Amino acid sequence: MKTIWIMRHGDAPYINGERQISDSGHQDIRKMAHWFSQQLKQQDERLSTLLVSPILRAQQTADTFEATLKELTEASWQRQTEPLISPESNPDLTIPFVEQTTQGTTLLISHMPLVSNLWAAWLGGESQYFPTSAMGCLSVELESGTQQARKVIFCSPDDTDS
To answer: How do strand 135-143 and strand 2-8 relate by DSSP bridges?
Structure first.
């Protein structure tokens, strides 16, 4: 079984001609890192792999998320920038890559429409809109070449108690 988390980058308006994470975006990302840390503790899991889109707003999201998570846990994980996690990537290529190259608990930080497309592809068409900084968790069973996924939880910054 694999646990796969999908996160959309934080709020990122155009700043100096490029989309960058806003102050409120960084705040939401920190809030979600706290929530994520609690979820990992409740599920008795730890993050193994962090796959991040090469686009600036996803990289900035990962930087803030990691810095916050490192304050909350002593665990370590592998971070990898992956072009297959870019906005227009094909889920038919991204999903096998994630399933075959990662172990344990994996977090993907990417963009719309890919985050919603991945969610729908893993869950057989169940659609889910991802507000900025939102996260969803899937449990994926891989047996004899077939894959079956189920939704564990979905949360946006507005849904957290912190």
So the answer is: antiparallel
Sign, CA dihedral 147-150-153-156, equals positive
- Average pLDDT, integer, range 22-26: 97
Average pLDDT score over residue span 13-18: 86
The conformation of residue 161, written as its DSSP 8-state character, comes to -
Q: For residue 147, how many C-alpha atoms fall within 13 Å in the half-sphere facing its CB? A: 17
Q: What is the pLDDT of residues 136-158, one digit of tens each?
A: 999 998 876 677 899 999 999 99
Tokens, residue 23? 């102050």
Bond before 157 cis per omega within 30 degrees:
no
Model's pTM, two decimal places? 0.95
Tokens read off for 29: 């990302």
End-to-end CA distance of the chain: 30
Tokens of 147: 């894959």
List the domains of the chain with CATH numbers.
2-159 (3.40.50.1240)
